[in-house]
Amino acid sequence: MSKAFVWLGLAVCLSGACERSCPSSGAGPRLTLAQPRVDVGTFDQDGPIRRSIALSNDGREPLILAGVEASRFCSAHIGTPTLAPGASGQLDVECRSDLFGPLRESLLVHSNDARAPNTTIEIVGTVRPRLTFDTPAINLTMAFGESRAGETRLVGTLASEAHLRLRDPRPESIDVDLLPASAGQPEGLRIRCKGDKTGNHVGHLVVVTGLEQAAEIGLSWACKVVGTLSVTPTTLYFNLKEPGPKVQFVEVASAQPGFKIQSVSIREGPFSAAIEPGAPSRVKVTVAQAGMDPETRGAVGTLVIVSNDRTEPRKEIAIMGMGRVNLR
Questions:
Q1: Does the model's pTM come out above 0.90?
Q2: Strand pairing category for 101-111 and 118-128
Q3: Quick one: which of 83, 96, 146, 205 could link to 73 by a disulfide (CB 3.0–4.6 Å)?
Q4: Distance of alpha carbon 250 from alpha carbon 283, whole angstroms
Q5: Which residues is 139 bridged to in the sheet?
Q6: Of 174, 161, 91, 175, which is closest to residue 130 (Cα–Cα)?
Q7: Rounded distance, CA 156 to CA 132, Å?
């Protein structure tokens, strides 16, 4: 092919004679959004969230809007499904606001625009709560024998109208105080964890508000009480399918001076336990295979360690045996 022929074809194309066969930025339909990212602002919970998004067809052929793929909280209605070249239209967007917090949604517009058949519209905003606490949970950590407290106040459009009371009796491991409104702050709660028992203590309080809307709200709490005793591992696992004796060791220590293991025992399960001779802080745990049914598939038990540790004088360790027992 000669260079003259190539240049001749290009000249014809530029003159508009082959508009349909030559690449052109304006050929075919073209969907243009006035706002590909829409900030709907701040709305009250359960209030209407509606916005209109302008769009146009900047191409040379009719634009067909086939539909809008909704998200979990937002959907859109197409006012005019077909737009002539140069014409404009709009999408009417509506979002749910039954859950408060950040709103981050995406809508997908399907059209016959060959360059962008699936166009994304991002919807962002914030839903203000009717009534909740300013922290979703109270989490406190303390040493054994100590106590810690955390406070939370009401927030939301109904916060100044609420009057709190506990629906149920409080749990034994915490104290709960109702905080009166003061200094422009609405009512709230103070939770105090009592560090008289080691471990993780969790729960959920339900509070009556005295309102028709948001009649009850909840608050989760967690208290971690750290003792002086440490045990490794915290759970024993045995592979019962392995041949031969099945033995594991538990290392026990305490920051308490003069620490001593006083006794060990198995509360349940086909296991035995003993303090290792020459290693008073080590416990030997063995699968008691004698007398086991050869068809045994899995076993569970509990190792009980009694010591002079003041924070956890009795420590229980879960034992799990997995698989069909191999007695060889």
A1: no
A2: antiparallel
A3: 96
A4: 5
A5: 222
A6: 161
A7: 6
Domains and their CATH numbers in the chain = 26-128 (2.60.40.10), 132-226 (2.60.40.10), 229-324 (2.60.40.10)
Spatial contact of 263 and 273, defined as CB atoms under 8 Å apart: no
**Residue 81, preceding peptide bond in cis (omega within 30° of 0):** no
pLDDT in tens, 170-201: 888 899 999 999 989 999 999 999 999 999 99
Instruction: Encode pLDDT of 82-120 as tens digits.
Output: 999 999 999 999 999 988 999 999 999 999 999 999 999
For 239-249, what is the mean pLDDT?
93
Q: What gap in Å lies between CA 186 and CA 172, rounded to an integer?
A: 27
Q: Which amino acid is at 208?
A: V
For tokens 């905080």, what's the residue?
179
Instruction: Give the three-class secondary structure for 35.
Output: coil
Identity at 169, one-letter amino acid code: P
